[in-house]
């Protein structure tokens, strides 16, 4: 029995670690969906223009870009776990503040603070998981972040639906939306508590010469023999990269990894999923839904998204990253076209099923996989900072989606808006096919060597 313990992965321990870090997805998921319920009432209460409507929705991404930009540098200095905990604290207070704001300006400020918290934790959570997880299940465990994101989205849609059905329209106009935003403090609190029981990243500890602490955590994850093998690989990579700097990221080799990471981050947002997440009720209302049925339809989207992501976690380490992204991009292209064609007719139910198809396609491809692959592309000494750079692009694109979607829907209508995202998905397919490598089952250090400049 001792021999078995020395060689086998300790599944329970490593899964609990991944779940603790992945709860950052609950924050991301809650924010993605709570504003979709509140924004219609905020628009009526404050008589918002499409541009201001977009700014309230996208303001959290302003803080997110700043948080992501600093998360890598801060976590390299102070550790992954501490920065994740700071992110949870910031979002906790921002959610409470959002519920008590009196003007659009105050709400935008509170959401920027919340974005700072999510920005600190979003990319870093997956980086942390990738540094802890064994190679053969790294994709599955990293996808827990996306799974928890979709659980947060689904739960929040039902919270929104419950709130709008509690009382009259006037009560929701003045009070209900405050509950939608303020309840976000609960997943932040759960995230903080979970991190109290999680260890620091063993790769980070070893890189900071805290070898014994790092080794002990690796033993808990992989057993003694597995930990010894990991230590050898990690130590070799650290010696090779000891005198390296951030400038190396922009040199041949890793520059290609950075380009791929930025491209995947862009595809995660340009696919168009957050158009549905942020403005689902608005879109369904434009398509003919009414009497709060737009909130029911959006809740259905949340359920489909969650179930599809559960299935996706079983596929990523079997089917591979690249085939799933290419398949998902093709399907999202077709469903975007179908959604576009449904606008302007009396095909509300058909449009809903087309949206379901789009959501399922995203959930097993461009939803979880960019989050998984981006940390995989970079060496330990650059992983957090490089992932942060890529996620700045992701959050920037997220800001653009949140800011400009109301303006696109107002100026172009639903049909041309989804034609635009159809074109974006075609670009995504071509880029993945041409440039993105497969990382399934490969140790992080082997992936790192793939991007090293070849000796002449």
Automatic annotation (TrEMBL):
GO cellular component, one term: plasma membrane
Membrane topology category: Multi-pass membrane protein
Keyword Cell membrane: yes
Subcellular location: Cell membrane
Spans traversing the lipid bilayer: 12-30, 50-71, 83-101, 107-129, 141-159, 179-198, 257-280, 295-316, 323-343, 349-374, 386-404, 416-436
Matches recorded under PROSITE patterns: MFS, SUGAR_TRANSPORT_1, SUGAR_TRANSPORT_2
Domain Major facilitator superfamily (MFS) profile per the UniProt entry, residue ranges: 17-440
Short name of any one Pfam family annotated for the protein: Sugar_tr
Domain of life: Bacteria
UniProt keyword list: Cell membrane, Membrane, Sugar transport, Transmembrane, Transmembrane helix, Transport
GO terms, molecular function: transmembrane transporter activity
Family: Belongs to the major facilitator superfamily. Sugar transporter (TC 2.A.1.1) family.
NCBIfam families, per the entry: SP (TIGR00879)
Name under which the protein is recorded: MFS transporter
Species name: Lentilactobacillus rapi
Primary gene name: araE_1
